[in-house]
Amino acid sequence: MQFNAAQIASLINGNIEGDDTIPVSSFGKIEQAQKGQLAFLANPKYEEYLYTTDASIIIINDSQEIKQKLDATLIRVPDAYSAFATILASYKKMITAQLNGIQQPVYISATAKIGENVYIGAFSYVGDNVIIGDNVKIFPQVFLGDNTTIDEDTILYPGVKIYHECVIGKRVTVHANTIIGSDGFGFAPQKDGTFKKVPQIGNVVIEDDVEVGANATIDRATLGSTLIKRGAKLDNLIQIAHNVEVGNNTVIAAQAGISGSTKIGNNVMIGGQAGVVGHLQIADGTKINAQSGVSKSIKTPNSYVTGSPAYDYTSALRSQVLSRNLPNIEKRIMELEQLMQQFVAEKISS
Amino acid sequence: MQFNAAQIASLINGNIEGDDTIPVSSFGKIEQAQKGQLAFLANPKYEEYLYTTDASIIIINDSQEIKQKLDATLIRVPDAYSAFATILASYKKMITAQLNGIQQPVYISATAKIGENVYIGAFSYVGDNVIIGDNVKIFPQVFLGDNTTIDEDTILYPGVKIYHECVIGKRVTVHANTIIGSDGFGFAPQKDGTFKKVPQIGNVVIEDDVEVGANATIDRATLGSTLIKRGAKLDNLIQIAHNVEVGNNTVIAAQAGISGSTKIGNNVMIGGQAGVVGHLQIADGTKINAQSGVSKSIKTPNSYVTGSPAYDYTSALRSQVLSRNLPNIEKRIMELEQLMQQFVAEKISS
Amino acid sequence: MQFNAAQIASLINGNIEGDDTIPVSSFGKIEQAQKGQLAFLANPKYEEYLYTTDASIIIINDSQEIKQKLDATLIRVPDAYSAFATILASYKKMITAQLNGIQQPVYISATAKIGENVYIGAFSYVGDNVIIGDNVKIFPQVFLGDNTTIDEDTILYPGVKIYHECVIGKRVTVHANTIIGSDGFGFAPQKDGTFKKVPQIGNVVIEDDVEVGANATIDRATLGSTLIKRGAKLDNLIQIAHNVEVGNNTVIAAQAGISGSTKIGNNVMIGGQAGVVGHLQIADGTKINAQSGVSKSIKTPNSYVTGSPAYDYTSALRSQVLSRNLPNIEKRIMELEQLMQQFVAEKISS
Q1: Which residues pair with A40 in a beta bridge?
Q2: How far is A24 from A73, CA to CA, in rounded Å?
Q3: C164, C175, C242, C279: which one is catalytic?
Q4: C93 contacts: CB under 8 Å, gap ≥ 6
Q5: Which of B2, B147, B298, C214 could form a disulfide with C175 if both were Cys (CB 3.0 to 4.6 A apart)?
Q6: Which of C104, C291, C329, C341 to mutate to test the interface with B (most CBs of B within 10 A)?
Q7: pLDDT value of residue A177
Q8: Which residues of C touch B239 (CB under 8 A)?
C-alpha cells in the first residue's frame, strides 16, 4: 500500500514541510531508511541522520530545529515517536482487516458457527460446536478443538492449537504454534513406582486483550479453569501449568514458567526464564527478576525479588556482591586467625 | 454424554442417597459446580460447599456426616477422591474410543500400514512404510516421517511431528506440537572458525506408557537411539538431547533440559527449568530440585540435589541461608578486626 | 539404499581387507551393529567390539592392529572417524536430493516464484510473492508468509512457520515447528496500568549456513531486522528477541534466550538455559556457561563467564567453592569471637 505525506499528516494531525504528494510504501529506521520509506526522529542523539537519510518522509517533534538543507518531506507533531506508533498501529489494522474469507482446503465441522468478516487460512481445523466471533483472523494450520469459543477481533497465527472446551476472549492475539489447553501434568504415584494419569478435564479461559507469544504452552485445569485475565501479556516459550491464574495486565517474559495452581496477581512483571513454584500467591504489582526462582508466596504488593530461591531484591544484590567477595572475606579471617594465634602463644609463654 | 446417578454408582460400587435417576453431563469443583454436574467432597475443609453447591450429584466418603438438608443426590464410597478419578478416567477413555476413521484431506503413503479402529485427523501426513497399530488416535496436522512406528493405543495430539525411523510404544501420549527425532546438536569445529554438521542418523525410541507434554523436543541420536523408557512422564517444553536415556518412571517437569549422552536412571524426579550437563550418569531415585544445574554424575541412589552447580540439598540450603546472611558475617569480621587492631596498638604501646 | 564395500572404500579412498562385494544398507555403533550395517572403530577403548560386532563392514584407522580372526570386511583409512562422517554426510545429501516435487494438497499463491528441483510437502502454505530458490526442501505443514524469501539449498522441516517479509539464506536448516518472524514483545505501559501494543513491522534475516533447532522462536524486529549471521548454530527451544544480532559462527545451546536489541559477536558460545539481558554487546569469542545470566555488556573478546548474574569464570568458581564452605567460615568467625571475648574479659579484669 502507498500513502502520501498529506494522508499521513492528516492521520496524525501534523504540519507538512516540503512536498505533500511524496509517496511512501514502507517504514524504516532513520539511519537505514531508503527512498519510499517513512521514518521518524524523536531522540536528538540521532539528529545527524536527518541530513543523511534517504527516507522520503520524516516525522519530527515540533521542537526540532533544522540546521541544514534536507531532501525529505517533514511532518511536525508534538510527539514524533507516539505519532509514528499511531501510524504503525493503523497500518497493521488495515493489513489485518484485509484478511478475509475461507481458503481451501480447510476442515470446518458442520456444527461450527462462524461470524462475519472472518478469515480462516488453509489447512486449519475447526471442530464440532466451535463458535468464532466477527472479525476473527485464523491463519493457516490452526487447530480448534470441539466446543472452543473464539470471541470477536481475535487473531490466531499459524499452527496455534487450542484443545477442546477452551474459551478465548475478544481482541486476543496468539502467536504461531502456541498450545492452549494441553493436559496439566498430573500423575498419581503408585506403590509399584509407576504413575497413574489424573485426567485433566477442566479448560483454559483467556480474557479480552491478552497477547500470547510463539511456542508457548498453557495447560488446561484438572477441574475448573486455568485463567489468563484481561490485558495480560505473555512472551514466547512460557509455560503456564494447570489451574494457574494470571492477573490483569500482568507481563511474563520469555521462557518463564508458572507451576500448578499458583495465583499471580494483577500488574505483576515476571522476567525471562524465571520460575514460580506451585500453589503460591503472588501479590499485585510484584516484580520478579529474570531467572529468579520464587519458592514462597509473596504477600506484600509491589515487592521486588531476585535470585533462586528468590528474596528481596536489594538484600539479594548486597549478598551477591559479598558472595563475589568471598575470597577477600576468607583472607581477612585467616589474618585474624594468625594474629589471634600469636596472641594466644604470647599469653601462654608470658 | 449423559449419565444418571445409578449408572455412576454402579461404576464405582457406591451407595446412592437420593434420586437415582438424576442426570449429569459434566464435572465440576464442588465450590463452583452447576446443575447437571458431578462433583466430589474428599477434604473436610470444603464441607460447607456440600450445602451450597448446585451440583446434581456428589460423591462423598462413607464417613462423611450430613448435618443439613441438601438437594443433591449423594453417592457414598470408601474413598471419594479415588472414585471420582476412576470416573474421570472412564469418561476420557470413552471419549477417546469414539474418535474413529480417517478425516479428509489427509496424506497417507500407499506403503503405510494402518491398524484397526484408528483415527487420523485432517491434514495429517503419514510417510512411507509407517506402521500404525490398533486404536491409535492421531489428531489433525500430525507428521509421521518415513519408517516410523506407532504402537497400539497411542495418542498423538495436533501438530506433533515425528521424524523418520522413530519408534513409539504402546499407550504413549504426546501433546500438541512436540517434536520427536529432530537432529541432535552436533557440529565439529573447523580451523577457520566455522562448524561442520555431524549428520544425525540414529533415531528416538519411546517405550510403552510414556507421556510427553506440549512443545517439547526429543532429538534423535547421532548413531543408535535416544531412549525414553517405560512409564516416564515428561512435561511441556522439555529438551532431551541426542543419545540421552531417560529411565523407567522418571518424571521431568516443564522447561527442564538434558544434554547429550546423559543417562538418567529409573524413578528420578527432575524439577522445572533444571538442566543436566552432557555425558553424565544420574543414579536411580535421584531428586533434582527445580532450576538446578547438575554438572557432575550422581552415583548414590536417592540423592537429593539443588543449586547451580547442584550439590547435596541439605548442605546447599544451609549455605543459601548463610549466603543471605553475608552482610551480617562481614559486619562480625569488621568488629573483630577493630578489636584486634586495638589489641595490636596497645601491645605496641606497652 | 544399499552399497558394497568397494563403493564405500572408493568414496573415502580406503583400502579393503576382506570381501569387497559385501553389502550394507544402514549404520550402527560398533557395539550394537547388526549384519548389513556399516560401523567404525576410532577409539582404541572399543577395540574389543571389533571381534564381537555383527557389523558387515568396519572402517578402521591405518594404525589399528588386528589381534584375532574377524568376520567383517575392513576398510582402512588414516582417520576412521572422519571417514565415517564423510560417508554419513554423503548419505544425508543423497537422501535429501531425492526429495522432489510438490505433494498434494498444498496452498501456493499464484504470485509465488519457485525454483528448480524444489520439494514442497503436503499441507504447506506458500503466501503471496514468496520466492523459493533452487533445491529448497520444504517438508509438510510449513507456513511461508507473504513476501518471504527462501534461498537455494535450504531445508525447512515439518511445521516451520515463517512470518511475512522474512529472508532466509542459502543452505539454512530449520527444524520442526520453529517460528521465525513472530512479533517482538513490545508494549508501552499506559497510565491506567494497561499496555498498548507497539506494532512490530521489521523482519528477520537469516544468513547462509545457519542451522536452527526445533521449537525455537526468533522474533521480528520492531523496525529493521533481527539478524542471524552466517554460520551461526542455534539449538532447540532457544528464544531470540526483536532486533537481536547473532554473529557469525556463534553457537547457542538449547533453551537459552537473548533479550531485545542485544548484539552477540562472532564465534561466541552460549550454554544451555543461559540468558542475556537486552541492549547489551557481547564481544567476539565470549564463552557463556550454561544457566548463566548475563546482565552487563562483555567488552573483552574471548571472556569466559558463569553464574547469575554472570562474571569471570575463574573467580566465580572460587566464590562458588567458598559459598559451599560458608558453614565452615561461620564456625571460624565464632571461634575468633569467643577467643576475642575472652581476651577482652581478661583485659578488663586485669
Answers
A1: A59
A2: 11
A3: C242
A4: none
A5: C214
A6: C291
A7: 98
A8: 235-237, 254-255, 272
What was the pLDDT predicted at A346? 81
The predicted-structure confidence for A170-215, as pLDDT tens digits, reads as follows: 999 999 999 999 999 999 899 999 999 999 999 999 999 999 999 9
Tell me which of B158-172, B264-278, C25-39, C208-222 is least confident.
C25-39
Which own/partner contact pairs does C298-306 have at CB distance under 8 Å and 24+ positions apart?
C301/C265
The pLDDT of residue A111: 98
C116, C136 contact by CB (below 8 A): no
- Rounded to an integer, the average pLDDT of A290-304 is 98
pLDDT at B349 over 80: no
Q: Model-level pTM? A: 0.95
**Antiparallel, parallel or unpaired: β A3-4 and A23-24:** antiparallel
Pure H helices in chain B = 5-12, 80-98, 313-324, 326-349
pLDDT value at residue A85: 87
Distance from CA of C133 to the nearest CA of A (A): 23
Hey, is C334 helix, strand or coil? Answer: helix
Phi, psi of B200 (to 5 degrees): -110, 100
The average pLDDT across C176-202 equals: 94
Residue in the structure block whose three cell numbers are 540423592: B303
According to DSSP, the β-strands at C187-189 and C195-197 are: antiparallel
Q: Which helix (H) or strand (E) holds C342?
A: helix C326-349
Count Cα atoms within 13 angstroms, Cβ side, for A242. 21
pLDDT (tens digit, 9 = 90+) per residue, A29-54?
999 899 999 999 998 889 999 999 99
Distance from CA of A272 to the nearest CA of B (A): 12
Check CB contact under 8 Å for A141 and B121.
Answer: no
* Average pLDDT score, chain C: 95
User: Out of A225-239, A278-292, B85-99, C181-195, which region has the weakest mean confidence (pLDDT)?
Assistant: B85-99
The x, y and z cell numbers of residue B204, run together, are: 528416538
Q: What pLDDT sits at residue A135?
A: 97
> Which chain A residues have a beta carbon less than 8 Å from that of B121?
125
What does the DSSP assignment read for B2-30?
-EEHHHHHHHHT-EEES-TT-EE-EE--T
Active site residue C242: yes
Q: Are A214 and A178 in contact (CB under 8 A)?
A: yes
Measured between beta carbons, the chain A residues lying within 8 angstroms of C215 are 177, 215, 237
Inspect the interface and report whether the beta carbons of C215 and A215 lie closer than 8 Å.
Answer: yes
Considering only CB atoms, C158 lies closest to which of B161, B188, B201, namely B161
> Closest Cα to residue A183, out of A143, A223, A212, A156?
A223
User: What is the edge-to-edge ordering of all strands in the sheet holding C211-212?
Assistant: C101-102, C119-120, C137-138, C155-156, C173-174, C211-212, C233-234, C251-252, C269-270, C287-288, C304-306, C311-312
Max distance between CA atoms of chain C, in angstroms, equals 103
> Distance (Å) from the C-alpha of residue C182 to the closest C-alpha of chain A?
7
* pLDDT tens digit sequence for B291-346: 999 999 999 999 999 999 999 999 999 988 888 888 888 888 988 888 888 888 88
Distances (CA, A) of B173 to A224, A239, A272, B213, C316: 22, 19, 29, 8, 42
Percent of chain C whose pLDDT exceeds 90: 81
Q: Do A201 and B91 touch (CB under 8 A)?
A: yes
Cell numbers that stand for B81 in this block: 477422591
Task: Give the three cell numbers for residue B277.
Answer: 550437563
Mapping DSSP to helix (H, G, I), strand (E, B) and coil, where does residue C80 land?
helix
Q: Report yes or no: C63 and C42 within 8 Å, Cβ to Cβ.
A: no
Residue B233: its chain A contacts at CB < 8 A?
185, 187, 195
Element (H, E) at C123: none
Amino acid identity for residue B310 in this structure: A
Per the listing, cell 525529505 goes with A72
Does residue C105 have a cis bond before it (omega within 30 degrees)?
Answer: yes
Q: What is the ipTM of this complex?
A: 0.93
